[in-house]
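Board notes, transcribed. Complex of a protein with beta-D-glucopyranose.
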Amino acid sequence: MTNEQIKALIADLSIEEKAGQLLQVAGNFYDKDSLTTGALDYFKITDKELELTGSILSISGAEKLKKIQDECMAKQPHHIPQVFMLDIINGYETIYPVPMAQGASFNPDMAKKCAAMAAIEGSAAGIHVTFSPMVDLVRDARWGRVMESTGEDSYLNGVLGAAMVEGYQGDDIKSKGKMGACVKHFAAYGGAEGGRDYDTVELSERTLREEYLPAYKACIDDGVKLVMTSFNTIKHVPAAGNKWLMKKVLRDEMGFDGMLISDYGAIVEMVNHNIAKDEVQAAELSINAGVDMDMMSLCYVHGLKKLLEEGKISQEMIDEAVFRVLSLKNELGLFDNPYKDASAEDEKKYILCDEHRKLAMEAAMDSFVLLENDDKMLPLSKDESVCFVGPFVDSKKVYGSWTFPSNDDSIVSIRQGIENIGAKNVSYAQGSQFLSNNMKLKNGEILTYDDEAKEKLLKEAVDAAKSSSKAVVCIGEHAQFTGEAASRTNITIPEEQMELLRAVSEVNENVVTLVVNGRPLELAEGKKLSKAVMVVWFPGTETGNAIANVIYGNNEPGGRVPMSFPYTVGQEPCYYNRLKSGRPNNGTLEQGYVMGYIDQIDKMLYPFGYGKTYTEFEYSTVEIEEKTGEEKPVLTLDKTLTASVVITNKGQREGTETVQMYVQDLFGSVCRPVKQLRGFEKVTLAPGESKKVSFVIKEEMLRFYNIDMEYTSEAGDFKVYIGPDSETDNFAEFVI
Ligand code: BGC
């Protein structure tokens, strides 16, 4: 359809049909068995209203969606197709590692391939749009949803988010196997105070613009088709009704002209926020802010007609929103083929196919972060006697919290992976339950079991550890401890599992701890009790195979920490690119009257960017290549600089280093962060091999919001650091 044809169609729609096009409803109203991602009881939709809806979320399956599409189109006066949306976050049925793990990979090509794979499976199952990527900047590990983000750095989030958008959308969302992407949650949902989900976000406009917005912008510049609003307030106004944020910042400044959808129930929640007295006023706020689609609230359906009749909003405002919704459907080709790629045959062909499983395994291996490896504990040899203990040895709950269609049968457990690789001298024991007695999960379930069972499990594991030369302890977070509505005041490994680790480490001095997690955890004690520690996140379908390959040395762990691990939760929020205090401390507890705590050194246990490999790399000092004749190299608006290091593999085996480039503006009209990531490159080197790695520094990388809130760079002194993590002190100086 041409734009004129879309406009002609809109002119022919009744106000009820228009409001219907702006409503998205959960799949449960069409199929009772479909899953839900939020509450349903408040949503009292009539049959008549249901007939006019424009979009359905959280339901999939080729045959099912074709049938629903037929039925819905038949009932609609203008036979407009539905657009089906789903949270395909880390895979559809072939599950690759959670986004936090993909952040750890520092590998945009991999993120793009994974997104493309997910789009192929999801579109075969009838889905047109995925609610991904989530690029919310996360600085507080208490927030349950950090697992859905690629981490604490806006540059890394932007690069990875844009790569995912490319993977989902390709060049044309109409093409087979492609779908629309929806970047979320605009804006700054990750900044919730205290890490409490759905709570207030209190940020200065400078921090919002400089740290939180760039990753969304990177996705918008890359052509993302949809943006989702966040639940939180920005400048004390909920995002779903925040005209400044949506009209001025998102539309005018960032140039987004695609479809803006609210988060689940976020429009009606403005009544709870005490900013709208009823759903009609909530509708007024959101339509005024330019929010096109109302996900799971009836504010538009109940409010728009009334607001129009009262002259509070104009017909043009409604038509503009309907135009965006219909344009998306048009771009997806739904007016010509309302099923798009839905095909039971393709579902069989692509879902969990070998190629996708292989990619899921590579992605998982690339995301594991080796934190400790004393005495070269890892890799293991297939002949040595090793026991694998812990509740994750046989667990299939290793895929994160947004993978609805996935079933446990397709998941390779750790035990299965070890068996597949053919390690000989191994034994297994569960060792402990996931959680201590009476712990409550986010779904309200309370886990209980008796003490006798606990003693028995522990004894089995201790016996296995006594008779093995090494013990691999597989522990971590219960899957229900991460994701939406799973914020925690503790970021520990559950006590029950720590008791297992303590008991095993008493009888075996060669402990390797594998941590399954969706967030940075307190690992100081685990580090003391183990010689090797490796974080594997929630690795997905190929969990066991990926872990076996890495711990037996066929592959190396490829990840680096994408979100700093504190010593204790009391240090949260905790991130590397902070401002310098007027009373800096020296990383000890010996000084008085300095920034920090009296009971905890001001350091992170594992800082952003950190991670070991199975080999050792050496860095030369940073050189800036351009000799400008001045004391320090000079960067100008039209002249870039190139900073380089030579890295050498000093170990005995091939390895891949994630070389990171950071900049620091030494003085500014406002305080500047101690370091900011501006580039990275993964480099694979054979033993003894050296390679020069160079990064181009451009003036635009150094811009920020100055004292007058102008986005610019300022003349002065800078440092460029190149090293293995955010604490590197390897730098060269230049001026601008
Ligand atoms: C979440 C979104 C998600 C939506 C639809 C909401 O509760 O915040 O991230 O995309 O549900 O499932």
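Residues 81 and 337 are 9 Å apart (CA to CA). The two ends are 51 Å apart (CA to CA).
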